[in-house]
Specification:
The structure holds two protein chains of two kinds. Chain A has two domains: 245 residues, no CATH class; 56 residues, no CATH class. Helix content of chain A is 21%, strand content 39%. Chain A is built from eight helices and 21 strands. In chain A, helix 1 packs antiparallel against helix 5, helix 6 crosses helix 7 and helix 7 packs antiparallel against helix 8. The longest helix of chain A is centred in the last third of the chain and has 19 residues. Chain B is built from nine helices and twelve strands. The longest helix of chain B has 15 residues. Chain B is globular, with a radius of gyration of 18 Å. Chains A and B meet through helix 6 and helix 7 of A and helix 2, strand 7 and helix 3 of B.
């Protein structure tokens, strides 16, 4: 990881200048991070003691048999990882990667103006570095697992990932964030660089402890005619903020989907920015939220169509199902269009379960509670069904159903 | 014993009285047609029997198989063998017909103390029932009513009825919006389900349906009351003279 020192110092200085955002910043209007700012975090230790043996096995089972990098509180665990399948592709902890890191790390994501990115860049310990050479198809998904645990004192970790897909290559990367324990903070940054004509599917499954903080930025730099998809599933975390920034090139197709299921007092904020920098780009965005308890959620979807990015086709949809009177959603599309021959559509809905549909199901013998579950799950399904990694989809189906059941009781 | 006994049933919606004293007795094996102009309370009667909570029952009694129907939640009524074919079947995106029907059937079977059907037996059974309404098996994998044409939705209702095998079927304007071909398919499906122990209440605005589903009794509803009852001849008379005289007779 040579050559990073100047950038890290620069980032540290930027963070010192920026400080944590406040609700006076437009981008953070509905997400108050003052509790993060006021907490004295120490570096999270490399410590597995908080995890029961059976628990870890169960967590990692769906990722068995594939290329897997596991990090404990932001540090690489060779014991839990499995790199033997990395035939012909680069898969290493960031600390051990040199050339790729020097060429790409922190080149795309903005640490000058984004405080949490600056904080990560200045402080990260490790993360995954994945490099797929030109014209290589990797069929098995690559799993990046981030285990976090909090203890008596608040701890912080800064996972930092870099994924570089060569021209004409194809790969699937799954990021899983799993944690337990009180007051810990995961501040993650992932940069993806996808070469010309490459195909990449990315998934992020966030299952942090409901007392934790989770802030994550995904920066995606897409080459000409690349085809990219990401699915961001937010289940855990007390205070959650996801930023996804995707920059498209000519003829690029990007799918940016998300699902969030806050309950209790959870807060989940999804900010996405899709930058149509060049002509003939297509983007599809579908975010769905199911809110219960006294939870709050934010969706802010920015689409930029740059001057000259003609024939852009951008579609954004945000749908929310609000199951409780105490839950709150703030949803906002933000379109900046500087070209004149484009198609951009956006739509947001906030609704409750359809009483007519509940009655319809009841009139066929299905109990009211089961009817509600069925309809709620059906609402989430069109995001879940798009997940192509079978074990991930199966796991998510199970989690969502259990979650619905728990919310009811 | 009568399957259904309605006595002096009054019901309101949002404080407005719609049903003003309905009396009706339905025995097993009988088909009763309820006719009447728009706003007469036909659909309200169907919905009240199915348990829709939009309507408040303010007076009267309904006995189903000797039990107090009005205290049962809708799902219990269905489990006890009541089925209403909706005038406007609800679209449920994200839930496949197959999943929906299997969940419904197995809940009902469980309640009746019969073993749940496994996937293979279920599929064999539903394919037979699909044939009754001339529907393509591919439709099992489609979401419930989503993107269906009006005719497909109505056929789906009759198909569900065939699968769930109710003791009392209430068809709420199943003929509305159907062209003659679809009407024949729907009516044929219904006729194949007529048995000696299954009763039906057919709610309709038009006599046309009753050419194909021939009722044992015809009742005319106006202003929330049954103003005239007779056999199938009554429907033909109404077709000629309309409802006008009957409405006046009541309000006078």
């Amino acid at each position: 990881m040579t050559g990073m020192e100047p950038i890290r110092q620069d980032a540290a200085q930027r963070f010192a200048k920026l400080g944590f955002p406040t609700t006076r910043d437009e981008d953070w209007r509905f997400t108050n991070v003052s509790t993060i700012a006021e907490t004295q975090f120490s570096a999270a230790p490399f410590d597995l003691s908080g995890w029961g043996e059976g628990q870890l096995e169960q967590l990692l089972a769906p990722y068995e048999g594939s290329l897997r990098l596991v990090f404990i509180n932001g540090r690489y665990s060779p014991e839990l990882s499995s790199l033997q399948l990395a035939r012909g592709i680069g898969a290493t902890p960031l600390r051990e990667a040199n050339g790729t890191v020097a060429a790409h790390l922190a080149r795309y994501v903005d640490y000058q103006d984004r405080a949490f990115v600056a904080l990560n860049t200045a402080n990260f310990e490790d993360g995954a570095c994945i490099e797929i050479p030109n014209g290589t198809v990797v069929e098995e998904p690559i799993h990046l697992v981030f285990l976090a645990s909090g203890g008596d004192v608040p701890v912080i970790s800064h996972p930092r990932n870099l994924v570089v897909i060569g021209p004409g290559s194809q790969a699937t990367v799954v990021e899983s964030y799993i944690g337990h324990g009180a007051k810990y903070f995961t501040n993650a940054v992932t940069e993806i660089v996808a070469g010309e004509g490459s195909v990449m599917d990315h998934y992020k499954l966030q299952e942090e402890d409901e007392r934790s903080f989770h802030v994550a930025t995904l920066q995606v730099q897409l080459g000409r005619d690349a085809n990219f998809s990401t699915h961001s599933i937010s289940l855990g975390g007390g205070l959650v903020r996801n930023d996804i920034n995707a920059v498209l090139a000519e003829g690029t197709e990007a799918t940016v989907n998300g699902l969030y299921l806050p309950s209790g007092s959870q807060h989940v904020d999804n900010h996405t920015m899709i930058d149509h920098a060049r002509p003939h780009g297509t983007s599809h965005e579908l975010y769905k939220g199911i809110l219960s308890g006294a939870s709050t959620a934010v969706f802010n979807g920015k689409i930029i169509v740059r001057w000259g990015a003609q024939k852009t086709d951008a579609k954004q949809t945000n749908k929310n199902l609000v199951l409780s009177e105490d839950a709150t959603i703030n949803t906002k599309p933000e379109l900046q269009i500087h070209a004149d021959d484009v198609r951009c559509t956006h739509g947001a809905t906030i609704g409750q379960l359809d009483q007519e549909a509940i009655f319809y199901l009841q009139s066929r013998g299905i109990g009211k509670e089961q009817a509600r579950d069925l309809l709620t799950y059906a609402f989430a399904r069109d995001v879940i069904d798009r997940i192509k990694v079978e074990p991930l989809r199966a796991r998510l189906e199970k989690i969502v159903l259990e979650r619905l059941h728990a919310n009811r009781n | 014993m009568a399957l259904l006994t309605i006595k002096n049933l009054h019901a309101s919606v949002a404080g407005k009285e719609i049903l003003r004293g309905i009396d009706l007795t339905v025995n097993p094996g009988e088909v009763h047609a309820i006719m009447g102009p728009n706003g007469s309370g036909k659909s309200t009667l169907a919905q009240v029997l199915a348990g829709r909570d939009l309507y408040q029952v303010t007076d009267g009694q309904v006995l189903y198989d000797g039990k107090d129907l009005l205290t049962m939640p809708p799902e219990e009524r269905a489990q006890e063998g009541i089925f209403m074919a909706f005038q406007y079947p609800v679209e449920i995106p994200g839930v496949s017909n197959m999943y929906f029907l299997k969940a419904a059937l197995n809940t009902i079977r469980k309640k009746r103390g019969i073993d749940e059907l496994d996937a293979m037996d279920f599929l064999t059974m539903v394919k037979e029932k699909l044939a009754l309404v001339e529907m393509d098996p591919a439709f099992l994998n489609r979401p419930v009513n989503a993107g269906f044409s009006g005719g497909e939705k109505k056929r789906n209702e009759i198909f569900q009825m065939a699968v769930l095998e109710p003791r009392l079927a209430i068809l709420d304007e199943t003929d509305s919006g159907l062209d003659i071909d679809a009407l024949k398919i729907v009516a044929n499906g219904v006729n194949l389900l007529r048995t000696g122990d299954r009763a039906m209440i057919v709610v309709t605005h038009y006599q046309r349906l009753l050419n194909y589903i021939v009722p044992d009794y015809v009742h005319v509803l106006a202003n929330g009351r049954i103003v005239k009852s007779g056999d199938k001849q009554l429907a033909l008379e109404l077709d000629q003279s309309g409802y006008v005289g009957l409405e006046e007779a009541v309000t006078a």
